[in-house]
């Protein structure tokens, strides 16, 4: 294909970060510093199941960092109650780690740590100094298996936090169940049709895509073990992609179904729904009030 035929592909706009979900379980991470910033780093690190070596004098530890050190076992956190001396001077060597983070208030020392890490090709993040970061942190949220991170490419971290909060508010309450349910179904499917790639892999993927398109998040979240089993027995085994209706599963009541149909027909968006809700509430309260006044009047007579 000649390049002139590629005009429909997205244009490259440089300056972005390579967003990943880094699997750090059992990896070794060096965290230098124990203040407020380090306490945030430590929390996210511990959630991955990595092994943290933390160097920072105890007297200036952030209370959360001190707490984590006190309750963790030594596998999760190796704590050294002292100052880090420097890449040449210290017996702790950055090259022995999979990742290095500094959150200290000594710019010169951070800079030396960064240089040593880059020499050893160890990814490093120096809080406060973007040019000395091989990767940035972002504003994160976690709901079980679901993780979302917002990055503004270093432009406005507080804006990232505000956007993350908005996303948090807009997430359906039962998103975790829906994701867990799909995870279980994929696991069961893998047992039934094992192996990597090839025509079977393609069929497996097409089938899963079909399922996710046919079942909404509510329906996925409410899926029982029995329904999952039937999806595989009556669906996968017979080369069919079954939806909730095909299995007689109705997660919504008829009122819910009817309301969805109305929403679709009228084209209700969130804003319109609010206006309609307030209007309906007003009508109900108004009717109740009028009825009350009328009742009181009839009592007086
Ligand atoms: C480049 C980056 C490197 C990195 O640290 O990885 C970086 C750099 C710097 N941050 C600074 C300041 C502040 N950082 C925050 C908050 C957060 N900062 C985070 C990430 C990042 N910060 C990376 C880019 C993220 C992105 O791309 O969007 C978050 C998202 C994640 C986290 O740190 O865990 C977390 C919010 C988490 C949450 O709440 O959800 C606040 C707000 C607050 O504290 O409430 C302020 C004060 C307000 C302000 O200054 O804007 C300064 C000092 C500037 C100065 O001296 O003036 C620098 C250095 C500089 O910019 O030069
Ligand atoms: N990237 C970001 O999001 C932000 C970065 N910062 C910067 O990050 C750095 C840390 O911030 P905070 O945690 O608020 O500071 P802090 O002053 O609360 O903590 C600094 C910690 O580093 C320790 N420390 C100092 N020298 C050390 C050494 N040689 N070895 C080991 N530990 C040492 C101190 O004992 C203390 O525990 C500061 O430079 C700050 O300006 C601050 C706010 C946001």
TrEMBL record:
Short name of any one Pfam family annotated for the protein: Sirohm_synth_M
Entry's EC annotation: 1.3.1.76
Reactions the enzyme catalyzes: precorrin-2 + NAD(+) = sirohydrochlorin + NADH + 2 H(+)
Swiss-Prot/TrEMBL GO biological process terms: siroheme biosynthetic process
Identification of the protein by name: precorrin-2 dehydrogenase
Domain Siroheme synthase central residues, every copy: 143-169
Gene Ontology molecular functions: ferrochelatase activity; precorrin-2 dehydrogenase activity
Organism: Filobasidium floriforme
UniProt key word NAD: yes
